């Protein structure tokens, strides 16, 4: 029997004087050309939730078939903070990350993007990734990752942290 959730009751009620909540269940799609491969397009779908972010990344180029596409990897990253006993304060450290579903062709890209976004937003981040870049030089992969993170952060807003 499938697990069902009762959505008829809400635990939080917005008052008329409060601004509308910023989380949205309407994903924002983006498409950007990769910096070193102008024929390859990086497609991004961003969903900002109240306590986390959900990002899907995929790539297309003229040589790929649009009818079949691999699911790719799905990764969860959460910001990690260490309590520094001497100063009694939290210090950010490398985010914790786990692969919920992995394919060798996309797991590295998904993990790196998830960790970067979790660190920058300060919120848990889910990243689905079926980006296929082949075997590009390191500079091209880093430039593609940087472009993806910059576009996602424009939508999510760097002011979320804190």
Number of helices: 2
Query: How would you state the average pLDDT, rounded?
Result: 77
Task: Work out the radius of gyration.
Answer: 18 Å
Based on secondary structure, the structural category is alpha+beta
The arrangement of helices and strands along the chain is EEEEEHEH
How much of the polypeptide forms β-strand, as a percent range? 25-35%
Low-pLDDT sequence parts? 1-15, 158-162
Terminal Cα span: 41 Å
Strands side by side in the biggest sheet: 1-2-3-6-4-5
Shape: globular
> Based on DSSP secondary structure assignment, what is the total number of beta strands?
6
| Biggest sheet descriptor | 6 strands, mixed
Please estimate the helix content.
Answer: 10-25%
Task: Walk me through the topology.
Layout: E1 28-33, E2 41-48, E3 53-60, E4 73-84, E5 89-101, H1 107-121, E6 125-130, H2 138-156
Parallel strand pairs: 3-6
Antiparallel strand pairs: 1-2, 2-3, 4-5, 4-6
Helix pairs in contact: 1-2
What would your notes on this structure say?
With 162 residues, the chain is an alpha+beta fold. Helices cover 21% and strands 33% of the residues. The chain has two helices and six strands. The protein has a six-stranded mixed beta sheet, with helices on one face. A hairpin with a 7-residue loop joins strand 1 and strand 2. Helix 1 packs parallel to helix 2. The longest helix has 19 residues. The radius of gyration is 18 Å and the shape is globular. The N terminus and C terminus are likely disordered.
